[in-house]
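Quick one, C-alpha cells below:
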C-alpha cells in the first residue's frame, strides 16, 4: 500500500482528499431528509398504530 513509511502528513492529506466527498454526502443527506422526512414519519406512525407498537 505504501512505498515508504507512512507519515502524519500522508494521513492528513488522505483525510483532506475525502472532505469534498463527505461534504457532498452530508449535503445530499440533509436535502433528502428535508424533502422526505414528513412523509416517512407519517408512514412510520401508521405502522406503529397498525401493528400495535405504541404502548399507552
Amino acid at each position: 500500500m505504501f512505498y515508504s513509511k507512512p507519515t502524519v502528513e500522508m494521513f492528513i492529506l488522505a483525510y483532506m482528499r475525502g472532505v469534498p466527498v463527505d461534504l457532498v454526502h452530508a449535503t445530499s443527506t440533509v436535502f433528502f431528509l428535508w424533502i422526505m422526512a414528513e412523509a416517512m414519519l407519517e408512514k412510520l406512525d401508521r405502522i406503529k398504530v397498525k401493528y400495535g407498537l405504541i404502548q399507552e
